[in-house]
């Protein structure tokens, strides 16, 4: 089975970012304006305007030489605080960690070792980044060493940037060292028989669309009653089809390989038992939408959903394809070249039909992928580490910004909470959102409804009494939900950064599915964080008693 | 170009608590000017508002009321810091850096080239007498050495205006004398120096003008000479006189309607005695002075 990357639409993400960024800016401006009116009375608008103008200048006229000097100082400071000791802790962990790892996963003996290394790096470095980023600036302010810096021609934006750069350099160096150590540890510890699992398989996922049982385009197919509606079901011997379009394929690489390897993880749904030894079967047709060419594969294939042999779910499509257009006995055999005739540029379209009468074939987007030639393990490992690096930079950004207006312990708590929420909150709110959109209501209600049900010992399904109290509860819950959605839109989604699952399962880390989103999320957050950090530091009296 | 390097008008500062309630009024409607090229002293007991004034000048604090202009720019302007040097009360420097690294770091903040930094660093380390300790981390420095490196960092940009907060605090008499000498040198180089201190003798020695603050308010301002001069009395200093000559002088004074209030041998200051003793000891190691004996002024050289 493959690990299906989440979809990431660049254009949409950019629009979403712009909307969120603009909203935050507008809110920040409003709060700032009200605060300056409250503090300076009639002079408030003038102070507000001049602060903004100064802020714009300070953010635009950043001197990289000064930033580098401050980054270098931050680096030395972290070194003097023994930040690199975390590397020794890591090595210590590995000296003894191997004793406690068992090959519990029979199918993938290499997996625990890879997961252990990646998880150890993830947790140790997260803690390290959190602590050094959250405590550095407050300690500097408390010791007043920052005073000698701000009385030089240094802009506060340069202090924020310099700090972020310095801490990032520290965590990235530790990340590089621990990763190199971890890589060789994996190579040494993984049993010889499992060494072949240290690869980076490259699945290419397509976009899926459907044709209904009458051959019309459909959003989904039959729902067989599964509570979890991940898959939709293709009805056997009807015109129902699931069609995958694989774009941006590296054709020259495939041509060099000489075939296309399809891997599937379909699920069968049987409406009658039939012969239990018989598999539900499906047929593959290759399409070229540009030329209208349809090439049915001569064979049909078993679903093999319970087979332990990984090759049982593989379909090899050779370069030379011989087929007949119809099932007439007299039909003429034709031969086409897969890459020249069936491929439309660098795209391939694959149509799947279930050929068992009254049986169903469960399909989802991730159930069929093209496996490109494998890459060495280090490729996926490095990409995973790069994802972690991006996350650490974001943690440093969050911590540094928080420390611009909070003391060390509080900013650590805030940043730590954001990391935890960014890992679990996103899925939680997504679930609430999908319940609201799909079912029109959230099971058990929101905060106030849940409290009411707990107090009155009412189950989640029973309707609330029809009275004013219920209206108030629903009104309040609606506001809380809206707040949750807003908070969810602001908190970084950390799940993109953790790409362990790809590497541990022997897959290459996809660029568009993981690395590009990680990079963009990091940049997308760093920009407002630098602005927020700057204004927090600029508007703060460093000597305030 | 304006003659005033610092212009302070009706400057007030109120420290507030978390809820915004006034906790203490540290400065109350202060107005004063500091002229170009002078050494200006801010005097006052602890808590009189000297350091608050300096921090308001530097933008470390925001005024509650009033205006401040330094070198013609408002206090919050970053660019003006190109021409300012600041020595804080405690030398708040990075203790994990050594003297070379410290000056190099501050030089970088002024966007100096590597060659400029090296040249300036070497000159300043020599000037403050830290050549022997330039590679030691600041955390190993004594108080006096820390003040010296603090002064060096304040001068890294060859500033027009130097703000010194308690420059001689914690220094031994030798260090104090060196510091005062360096302040005089800065004045001779045409720089404006503003220092705040509660060590009156130090201020008297180096300052051209002073302001005395008390509980946040300006009480006295003027030139040291003018403020300390006792115009109703005249002091004559001569070589040693015998009793007969003294009586003769007394009768001459009486003839002119004046009376001799007191006469004695003039004394030097304790600081002078200390400095002479140290220098004599350096010049002649092992020499001990008999009780009552003192190093003569001629041994100073």
Automatic annotation (TrEMBL), chain A:
This is ABC-2 family transporter protein. The chain crosses the membrane at residues 14-40, 83-101, 113-137, 165-186, 385-406, 480-499, 511-535. The keyword Transmembrane helix applies. It comes from the Bacteria. Coiled coil: none annotated. It comes from Thalassoglobus neptunius. The keyword Membrane applies. Keywords: Membrane, Transmembrane, Transmembrane helix.
UniProtKB/TrEMBL annotation, chain B:
Residues 281-293 have a biased composition (Basic and acidic residues). InterPro entries: AAA+_ATPase (IPR003593), ABC_transporter-like_ATP-bd (IPR003439), ABC_Transporter_VariousFunc (IPR051782), P-loop_NTPase (IPR027417). SUPFAM superfamilies: P-loop containing nucleoside triphosphate hydrolases (SSF52540). Gene3D superfamilies: P-loop containing nucleotide triphosphate hydrolases. Residues 6-240 form the ABC transporter domain. The keyword ATP-binding applies. The keyword Hydrolase applies. It is an enzyme of class 3 (hydrolase). Residues 281-301 are annotated as: Disordered. One of its GO terms (molecular function) is ATP binding. Keywords: ATP-binding, Hydrolase, Nucleotide-binding, Transport. Its EC number is 3.6.3.-. This is Putative ABC transporter ATP-binding protein YxlF. It comes from Thalassoglobus neptunius. The lineage of its organism: Bacteria, Pseudomonadati, Planctomycetota, Planctomycetia, Planctomycetales. The gene is yxlF_1.
């Amino acid at each position: 089975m493959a690990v299906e990357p989440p979809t990431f639409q660049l254009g949409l993400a950019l629009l979403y970012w712009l909307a969120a960024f603009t909203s935050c800016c507008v809110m920040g401006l409003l709060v700032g304006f009200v605060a300056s009116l409250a503090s300076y009375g009639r002079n408030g608008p003038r102070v507000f305007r001049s602060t903004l103008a100064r802020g714009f200048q300070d953010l635009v006229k950043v001197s990289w030489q000064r930033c580098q000097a401050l980054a270098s100082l931050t680096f030395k400071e972290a070194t003097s605080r023994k930040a690199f000791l975390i590397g020794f802790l890591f090595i210590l962990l590995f000296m003894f960690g191997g004793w406690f790892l068992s090959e519990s996963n029979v199918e993938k003996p290499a997996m625990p070792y890879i997961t252990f290394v990646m998880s150890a790096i993830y947790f140790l470095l997260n803690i390290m980044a959190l602590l050094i980023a959250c405590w550095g600036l407050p300690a500097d302010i408390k010791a007043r060493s920052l005073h000698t810096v701000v009385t030089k021609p240094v802009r506060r934006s340069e202090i924020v940037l310099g700090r972020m750069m310095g801490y990032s350099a520290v965590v990235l160096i530790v990340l590089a060292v621990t990763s190199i150590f971890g890589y060789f540890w994996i190579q040494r510890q993984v049993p010889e028989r499992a060494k072949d699992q240290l690869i980076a398989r490259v699945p290419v996922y397509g976009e899926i669309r459907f044709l209904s049982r009458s051959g019309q385009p459909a959003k989904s197919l039959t729902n067989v009653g599964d509570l979890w509606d991940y898959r939709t079901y293709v009805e056997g011997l009807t015109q129902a089809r699931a069609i995958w379009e694989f774009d941006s394929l590296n054709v020259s690489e495939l041509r060099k390989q000489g075939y296309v390897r399809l891997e599937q993880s379909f699920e069968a749904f049987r409406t009658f038992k039939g012969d239990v030894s018989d598999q539900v079967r499906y047929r593959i047709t290759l399409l070229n939408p540009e030329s209208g060419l349809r090439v049915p594969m001569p064979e049909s294939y078993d679903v093999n959903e319970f087979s332990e042999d990984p090759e049982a779910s593989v379909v090899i499509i050779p370069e030379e394809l011989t087929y007949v257009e119809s099932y007439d006995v007299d039909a003429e055999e034709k031969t086409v070249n897969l890459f020249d005739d069936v491929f439309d540029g660098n795209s391939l379209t694959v149509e799947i039909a279930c050929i068992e009468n009254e049986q169903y074939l469960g399909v989802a987007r991730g159930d069929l992928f093209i496996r490109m030639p494998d890459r060495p393990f280090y490729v996926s490992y490095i990409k995973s580490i790069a994802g972690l690096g991006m996350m650490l930079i974001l943690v440093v950004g969050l911590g540094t910004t928080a420390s611009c207006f909070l003391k060390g312990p509080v900013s650590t708590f805030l940043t730590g909470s954001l990391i935890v929420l960014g890992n679990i909150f996103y899925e939680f709110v997504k679930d609430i959102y999908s319940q609201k959109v799909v079912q029109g209501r959230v099971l058990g209600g929101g905060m106030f409804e849940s409290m009411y049900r707990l107090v009155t010992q009412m189950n989640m399904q029973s309707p609330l009494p029809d009275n004013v109290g219920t209206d108030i509860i629903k009104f309040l819950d609606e506001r809380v939900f809206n707040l949750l959605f807003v908070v969810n839109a602001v908190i970084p989604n950390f799940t993109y950064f953790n790409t362990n699952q790809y590497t541990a399962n022997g897959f290459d880390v996809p660029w568009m599915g993981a690395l590009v989103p990680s990079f963009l999320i990091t940049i997308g957050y760093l920009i407002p964080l630098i602005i927020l950090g700057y204004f927090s530091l600029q508007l703060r009296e460093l000597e305030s008693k | 170009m304006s003659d005033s390097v610092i212009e302070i008008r009706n400057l007030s500062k109120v420290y507030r608590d978390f809820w915004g309630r006034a906790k203490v009024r540290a400065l109350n409607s202060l107005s004063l000017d500091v002229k170009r090229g002078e050494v200006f002293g801010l005097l006052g007991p602890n808590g009189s508002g000297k350091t608050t004034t300096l921090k308001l000048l530097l933008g470390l604090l925001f005024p509650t009321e009033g205006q401040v202009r330094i070198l013609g720019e408002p206090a919050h302007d970053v660019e003006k810091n190109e021409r300012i040097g600041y020595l804080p009360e405690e030398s708040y420097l990075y203790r994990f850096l050594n003297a070379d690294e410290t000056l190099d770091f501050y030089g970088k903040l002024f966007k100096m080239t590597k060659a400029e930094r090296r040249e300036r660093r070497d000159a300043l380390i020599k000037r403050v007498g830290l050549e022997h300790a330039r590679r030691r981390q600041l955390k190993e420095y004594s108080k006096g050495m820390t003040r010296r490196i603090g002064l060096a960092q304040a001068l890294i940009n060859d500033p027009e205006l130097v703000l010194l907060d308690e420059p001689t605090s914690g220094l031994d008499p030798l260090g104090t004398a060196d510091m005062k000498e360096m302040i005089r040198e800065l004045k001779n180089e045409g720089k404006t120096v503003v220092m705040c201190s509660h060590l009156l003798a130090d201020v008297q020695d180096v300052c051209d003008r002073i302001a005395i603050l008390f509980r946040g308010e300006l009480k006295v301002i003027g030139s040291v000479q003018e403020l300390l001069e006792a115009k109703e009395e005249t002091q004559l200093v001569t070589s040693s006189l015998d009793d007969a000559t003294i009586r003769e002088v007394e009768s001459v004074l009486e003839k002119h309607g004046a009376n001799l209030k007191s006469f004695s041998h003039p004394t030097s200051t304790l600081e002078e005695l200390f400095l002479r003793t140290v220098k004599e000891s350096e010049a002649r190691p092992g020499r001990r002075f008999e009780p009552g004996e003192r190093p003569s002024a001629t041994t100073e050289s």
